[in-house]
Amino acid sequence: MNTGATFGVLTTFDHSSQEWNNFKLRLEQWFIANNINFETDKATIKRRAILLTSLCESTFKLTSDLALPNKVEELGYDAIVKLLDSHFTPKRFGFAEKSIFYAASQRPGETHTQWAARIRGLATHCAFKNLEEALLDKFIMGMSPGRERDKLFVQDQRELTLAKAIDLAESVRCARQASAMPAAAAAGPAAAAADGVFSISKKEKCSVCGFTNHKSNQCRYKNFKCKKCNSKGHLRKMCPNEGKVKYVEQGTVDDGDDDVLTG
User: At 55, is the secondary structure helix, strand, or coil?
Assistant: First the structure.
């Protein structure tokens, strides 16, 4: 929603899909950009109007209900913000937050920088006395098993910081990936050859002659008669009466298949 301000665009806030704290921060920055403050809006009437018109229908209804028995349009801006803060900001319990923090672990595919950023967010309401130490311990002990964690385990913890741990883990990861590239390149031709053999062995056999270089409806022998059952549509070596037919190597029609001369 464009409010017609000189700077920026203020979007509509929908509490069912957006975070109130994030919207409030953006709203306050929007006020700063457009010089709306205590000096230019002493009664907060303009700020109240901008906030209320920035709410979607359901969020406006919720705000009105929270304001009862007062009318929301008669409250001051700060009072409305306080109502929404109380409603949307959950109460934090230190030990419960710490339990979530300590139970976290690096997810598959999560980079070391993403993992560090996530535990910083989880530690926000833990009230650690030494935040840096708690973050460093969790970063290392919660890492996925591998060379990166092994490398950090042998470091002197008195000299290690979270920033250094992230850099060291990233350097080990890059080195591991670089060392794996030559091996993958060397294995390429052999792997390709193996794949080629596999794909050949899995080719469908022609039900007429047994070869694998064409389909049955394209076989040049499809109109010939079998010497064993005198039926048209297959050679003797592919006759169902012969039992299970083994793989037929491509080459000259063998086994005295003079039936190919009988059309």
Answer: strand
